[in-house]
Design goal:
alpha/beta; Rossmann fold; six-stranded parallel beta sheet; two-stranded antiparallel ribbon; 8 helices; globular
């Protein structure tokens, strides 16, 4: 019978009998691991395993791979990864790359990132036309470097050199007018609008971007790194949907039911490596 994993913050370790758990895991990542709505639902909240599992979580909304890989910006995660707790973790769970992609779309001035800026009177002819290939190549190099640094940290850890690291692909998000609230989001459609990309190209463009990110992550080939490929797991929202829709609570965050669907893939993948 599957048992819901227990998630705690690093400072709560002294309040928990860690020896009573068969598996101990370290989780770092973005809002998919912390929370993606006002209701606090996340992928970690949905995880269930056949063993009693404790997850020490250092994730935070908006986190990027570059921050996770920077020891001084992410002390909790990197100290635990390095072996601040002498007992090795059974698994290290990473959710990263999604915010990095969003930043590559939207943080620079229009035309300065991986999207090309179009004249409204001369729209792109295809989704591929929307991507600045030179900028995308730089983005891929950036992602590889940060995934590689995290893998290197784990491999060089005195306690976790043999601990399997699990990373994941993201699903097909639908660019639409649905944000987090309090002025946060939407993210994708705003970036596309700023580059004068017509709505008819939004979904095909996200398919291209998500597939490229999937190809990059599944092709990492890093020591002890296992990729959980969940692209295509969730039912997509429509561009006209403004609130929660199917497996999505807003533009880029799955709903509680969506995370349950993703958690099934995580359970299968993790237990295939750790055993049950």
């Amino acid at each position: 019978m599957s048992i819901k994993a227990r998630r705690i913050a690093p400072w709560e370790q002294d309040q928990v009998d860690t020896a009573s758990f068969a598996w101990r895991m370290l989780a770092e990542g973005d809002s998919w691991f912390s929370f993606g709505s006002f209701f606090g639902n996340s992928l970690l909240d949905a995880l269930e395993f056949d063993q009693r599992t404790l997850i020490i979580q250092t994730a935070m909304p908006g986190d990027t791979l570059s921050r996770m890989a920077d020891w001084w910006k992410d002390l909790n995660f990197n100290n635990l990864l390095a072996g601040a707790v002498a007992t090795p973790f059974d698994a290290i769970l990473i959710s990263g790359g999604g915010n990095d992609l969003i930043n590559a779309l939207s943080t620079q001035s229009p035309g300065g990132g991986v999207l090309r800026l179009f004249n409204p009177n001369e729209p792109p002819m295809s989704a591929q036309d929307c991507i600045d290939e030179e900028a995308w190549a730089k983005f891929e190099t950036y992602l590889h470097a940060n995934f590689r640094e995290i893998s290197k940290r784990a491999k060089g850890s005195r306690a976790n050199s043999g601990t399997p690291v699990f990373v994941h692909t993201y699903d097909f998000a639908t660019p639409r007018e649905s944000g987090f609230g309090l002025g946060r989001g939407p993210w994708l459609c705003r970036a596309f609008q700023a580059h004068n990309i017509p709505e008819m190209r939004w979904v095909p463009l996200m398919e291209v971007l998500s597939s490229r990110l999937q190809a990059l992550i599944t092709g990492l080939s890093l020591p002890n790194v296992h990729v959980i490929d969940t692209l295509g797991t969730l039912q997509r929202a429509e561009t006209s949907d403004e609130g929660e829709s199917l497996h999505w609570v807003n533009e880029i965050h799955p709903s509680r039911e969506g995370y349950r669907e993703l958690a099934k893939a995580w359970k299968k993948a993790v237990e295939s490596v750790l055993g049950d």
